[in-house]
Automatic annotation (TrEMBL):
One of its GO terms (molecular function) is monooxygenase activity. This is Cytochrome P450. The lineage of its organism: Bacteria, Bacillati, Actinomycetota, Actinomycetes, Mycobacteriales. The keyword rRNA-binding does not apply. PROSITE patterns: CYTOCHROME_P450 (PS00086). Belongs to the cytochrome P450 family.
Amino acid sequence: MTTTEHGSNGRVEVEFDHHSAEFRENNYAQFDELRSKCPVTHSSTHGGFWVFSDYATVFEAARDDDMFNSYPSVGVPASEMPFPIIPIESDPPLTQKLRSILLNRFSPKATDTLEPKARELATELIDGFIERGSCDIVQELTTPLPARLTLHMLGMDESKYEHWVHWVHSTVHDRASDPEKAGIAGMEMFGEIAEHMAQRRSEGFGDDALSALMQAKIDGTPLDDVQITMYTVLLLMGGMDTTSGLTGNAMIRLIERPELRQRLIEDRDLLPDATEEFLRYDTPTQGLARTIGKDGRFCGFEMKKGERAVLLWAAANRDPAVFEDPDVIDFDRQNKKHLAFGVGAHRCMGSSLARMMFRVMMDEILTRLPDFELAGTPERFEDAAEVYAVSSMPIRFTPGPRVGDGAS
């Protein structure tokens, strides 16, 4: 982000590119700069789009579905997917009808029933490397656990999680820099989902999320195969990227701030509050886009139907007008009204599940790898526009014993 000027209509023009390496390395500084100029700016990159960077503006826009549409795409540039990724790329009242199909499977009660499975996975995965005294914690724990749990919920083969992770990561992180690669990954993912759908139809449905989608109806009409596929894609994206990103980001902060780590080691009851603070401080989903649905004024600016806007959740969560000392991690912070999961009709359905997986992984790490430290430089995905996440993080720690079923 290099230049700023006032356009003829009074809007503040900036060169802001959330897909750039500069953003990946300096996202929080750029958020501060955007807010200092104006909470509503306009960037010329990617065909032009509005940028909302303070809490009040992001909150208001996210709740105004008439002015700010989620269909056809929540990305800037727009997604290369051939069909909308539902329900995130839909608008009310369809949004609520789509969400109601699976909402009960992501409730706090349903999440509680999945925690033993998450614990089992954490034990198995940590057993796989704890005797070595080193690992890539992202590749060996924080990515496979959410991925395998997501596949478990969908009734799919957990052992093939690496294929799904590759497709999801390419679809999310390569789409702006290498749309052809992202497109190929998307088509391969579609093909695999189609095979699972055919299997359900030939062998019968089970008590899993994919079967529920295939049997669901909206206003008496079953979802078609495209809708089922795109809904499944969203579940896979949500389960295989953001929770790992949150956990990796938090681990880096605990290495930087050993006193925070020690507090959690000594008082595990702090984990729920720490979870909310890490969600606020290092929000994995940096922002999502909307399409202006009608001509109108917003925050004093004239906006035209068809223009795009990016709602920066992560910038809103560092807004000093709402959060005292926003650049400080404070487990005792009373204000927990962060926007890490969005707000309004599109608030993340999987928020309870994400919190549970994060707490399980952090609890197991603090119990079994309490002295973890970096054994190399963490690497982030090249494109952090939508998801700010670590892709690789080598650590070392005091070796320990295996404790799972395979322990000797």
